[in-house]
Amino acid sequence: MAGFSAFTASSTNATGTAFADQGLAISSIPAVQVASAPQSTSVADLAAARAEQLASDSDAVVDSQQSAAAAARANQLDGNAAVIATEIDRLKNLAKFIWPAEGKVGSVYGMRLHPILHYYRMHDGDDIGGTCGEPIWAAQSGVVVKAETGYNGGSGNNVWINHGDINGVNVQSGYLHMLRYVVKVGQKVDKGDVIGYVGDTGLSTACHLHFSIKKNGASSDPMEYIGWNPEAKGTASHN
């Protein structure tokens, strides 16, 4: 090892002497060029690229949100259109009441000589002939606002249904002289539901349904609402 060290030192000295003899300074020897990696991107370039990417992502998010909002709006409009169409159909049929019991009208709305009291007075409904025990149907959907048992001033067992606003007026229908009823106050009924049965209670001479209409609380001709029905054909024209 000592010999090798001596040799190395000697060799190094000799080489240095040789360079000196040739008039060359060691510092003048060109440095060995090492292959380097490609020049790296600057921080400014990275920041700019990142900002561009964020802007692109932001645009994509906005587009997605706008598309979702448009789809939701379209669905809402479709839903609104369906609701409007349903409401239009409901309003078209709201003023068309079904015939509330089997039979024809034997005594119409208007002044008449009362068959029991024997003096003229207002007959505030249509008497629809029938057989005791036959069903009475709700002429239109609504809420039961009255259900009375007994004589009740001649009305007998009776039911009144509030149909709400129809063409700007509140409309209620009444069913008088019932044998019995099967509904209660506050109950919601649909058009065609059985609400009771034809009877002869109260001031009555035979089994029939006295069907009445009130508009804003005042009696009105029921034919305005049930006259369209084929059952109304051939009804009595006078009392």
- CATH-derived topology of the domain at 105-230: Glucose Permease (Domain IIA)
Which CATH architecture of the domain at 105-230 is right? Distorted Sandwich
CATH superfamily of the domain at 105-230: Glucose Permease (Domain IIA)
Shape: rod-shaped
Percent strand: 25-35%
The amount of helix comes to 25-40%
Oligomeric grouping of the chains: single chain
What does the model show?
The protein has a domain at 105-230: Glucose Permease (Domain IIA), CATH 2.70.70. The protein has three helices and twelve strands. It has helices at residues 2-21, 43-94, 223-226; strands at residues 105-107, 110-113, 120-123, 126-129, 135-137, 142-148, 157-166, 169-181, 188-189, 194-198, 208-215, 218-220. Strands 1, 4, 5, 6, 7, 8, 9, 10, 11 and 12 form a ten-stranded antiparallel sheet that branches. It has a two-stranded antiparallel ribbon with strand order 2-3. The longest helix is centred in the first third of the chain and has 52 residues, at 43-94. Residues 1-37 have low confidence and may be disordered.
Question: Tags for this entry?
Answer:
single chain; about 240 residues; alpha+beta; Glucose Permease (Domain IIA); 10-stranded antiparallel β-sheet; two-stranded antiparallel ribbon; 3 helices; about 30% strand; rod-shaped; disordered N terminus
